[in-house]
Amino acid sequence: MIRKLPRWINSNRKATASLALLAVVVAVNALAFMHAHAMTHFAVDGERTGGPASLSTWQKAKVLLTGVRLPKPRISETPAEFGLSYHVHRFTSETGIEYEAWHVPCPESQGLCVLFHGYGRCKSSLLGEAQAWRELGYETLLVDFRGAGGSSGRETSIGFHEADDVVAACEFARRELTDEPPLLCGRSMGAVAVLRAVAKNDLEVKALIVESPFDRLVSTSENRFYAMGLPAFPFAQLLVFWGGVQHGYSGFEHNPVEYAEDVDCPVLLINGTLDSRVTQEQARSVFENLAGRKQLVFFEGVGHESCQAADAQKWTRCVAEFLRQAGD
Length: 328
Hints:
- This protein is an alpha/beta fold.
- It is 42% helix and 14% strand.
- An 8-stranded mixed beta sheet has the order 1-2-4-3-5-6-7-8, with helices on both faces.
- Helix 2 (13-40) packs across helix 8 (235-247), helix 5 (162-176) crosses helix 6 (189-200) and helix 7 (217-227) packs across helix 8 (235-247).
């Protein structure tokens, strides 16, 4: 049989080419499916794959073949390490998801700000902002999205279903912590979830502070390939397609630039000038579509990281000024 194979190939060249092309298509899609699963399903344990800038050529090749490793984000610090008193709260959504959140009170509070973390992180990453908000006179509620920290599950949908987590957290806050509409503050994926939640639901909020929201899911996927020094097409599109299939939505319709059109409350949008995940152009496209009062502030020399941690004084100034204008 094996000896006859070369003869068959020579006499059936079109069929051979078609089969080879089919094999390539199947292999590429299988690889994209595997990567999408690895990026949206947290591992039980192990070491997290580093960012593209920290990987050697060999490590990048390995990641391309095996996918990233993303352990479930765990609590690394509590408000106590920042000198903040706090209360642990747990609440459940209508769909049975169990959430964990920290409430950091503030004497003579001017209001409540609900904080939401980024992709692959948990509420521990928001402690710097919680401390800054307290200094501004606001109490905070730091929330773990589904799959992160003390919340149930091991999956993330890159901000799509997390919008429901934002709604659940706001409902809990209005029920248990405050009679006033809260401020919402989200970073990266948290910003995306906040924009989607406000656009798609009848949420009563005072204002939004959103940091580094991508404009389109396919755009931020493409940016990850560029950071690896690789062409994005068609791999970014396949990643978005299969990720959406795995989580029950169309990734090509998960676009904060479109959500922004239905957000009419005051919004402060913050972004770093060196952010490779969300470019200045992409941040501006989201900002321009916001329907209400809005401000855009860029942090010079800052990448895809906490702008508050990078430049605390500037962050405090721009947030305080925004709150003053939003209250006018």
